[in-house]
Design goal:
Elements: H1 3-26, H2 33-46, H3 55-84, E1 95-96, H4 104-113, H5 117-127, H6 133-140, H7 144-167, E2 174-175
Helix pairs in contact: 1-2, 1-3, 2-3, 3-6, 4-7, 5-7, 6-7
Length: 192
C-alpha cells in the first residue's frame, strides 16, 4: 500500500475516534472540535510516511499537541473577555455539590480538574479512550514503564483530590444541600 492509501485507511477507520477524543477534551466548545480534528489529520497527511501500523495512539498524540494549541488560543480569548468584564462566572456564586449529590460525575470532574494537565491526560487516555499502557506510551511519546508509572501516580493523585473534596468545600463556595434550593447569586446586601 502507498502512503496515501495508508493515510486514507487511517482517516476512514479512526476519524470518529479522534473526533470523540477531541470533543471530550474541549468540553462544551463543540465549535472548535472540527477545526482541531482537521488540524490533526492535516498533520497526519503531512507525516503520512511516519504513520505506524496501528495509527490510533499516534493520532491521539498528534491530537494532544493540536489541542494544546487550541487551548492556549482559548485561554487567550478568555483572558481578554475577563479584562473586558464580560465573564459571567465573575457575577455569580460558585456552588460545589458534595459526593453524595445527584451528580457524581461532576464531583469526579471537579477532582480531575484539580490535577495537572499531564495527570488529566493519562487518566483520560485510559478511561475515555480505553487505551492500554503500551498505547498510552505511544500517545504520550514515552516508554511503557514511564506510561505505567504516570498512570499509577495520576490515579493516586485523583484519589487524593476526591478525598480532599469530600472533606472540604472550595473556598468561597457553598456546599449544596440536597434539601435546600441552590442560589446562583449571592444575597443582596441591605435587602431582606
Amino acid at each position: 500500500m502507498s502512503n496515501d492509501e495508508i493515510f486514507a485507511a487511517a482517516y476512514r477507520e479512526h476519524y470518529w475516534a479522534v473526533s470523540r477524543y477531541v470533543a471530550r477534551r474541549l468540553d462544551g466548545r463543540s465549535s472548535e472540535v472540527e477545526e482541531v480534528v482537521a488540524e490533526v489529520f492535516t498533520v497526519a497527511w503531512r507525516r503520512r510516511s511516519d504513520l505506524p501500523a496501528s495509527p490510533l495512539p499516534w493520532l491521539y498524540g498528534v491530537a494532544r499537541n493540536c489541542l494544546s494549541n487550541a487551548v492556549r488560543g482559548y485561554g487567550r480569548r478568555r483572558r481578554l473577555m475577563d479584562r473586558l468584564g464580560n465573564d459571567e462566572t465573575a457575577h455569580g456564586r460558585h456552588i460545589v455539590a458534595g459526593p453524595d449529590s445527584e451528580r457524581p460525575a461532576e464531583w469526579v470532574r471537579d477532582a480531575l480538574a484539580r490535577l495537572s494537565p499531564a495527570d488529566q491526560e493519562v487518566l483520560r487516555l485510559t478511561a475515555w479512550e480505553e487505551l492500554g499502557v503500551d498505547e498510552i506510551a505511544v500517545a504520550l511519546g514515552c516508554g511503557s514503564r514511564a506510561a505505567a508509572m504516570r498512570l499509577h501516580r495520576a490515579r493516586r493523585r485523583l484519589r487524593t483530590e476526591i478525598d480532599r473534596l469530600r472533606i472540604t468545600v472550595a473556598p468561597g463556595a457553598v456546599a449544596a444541600d440536597p434539601g435546600t434550593p441552590r442560589r446562583d447569586t449571592p444575597k443582596e446586601q441591605g435587602h431582606g
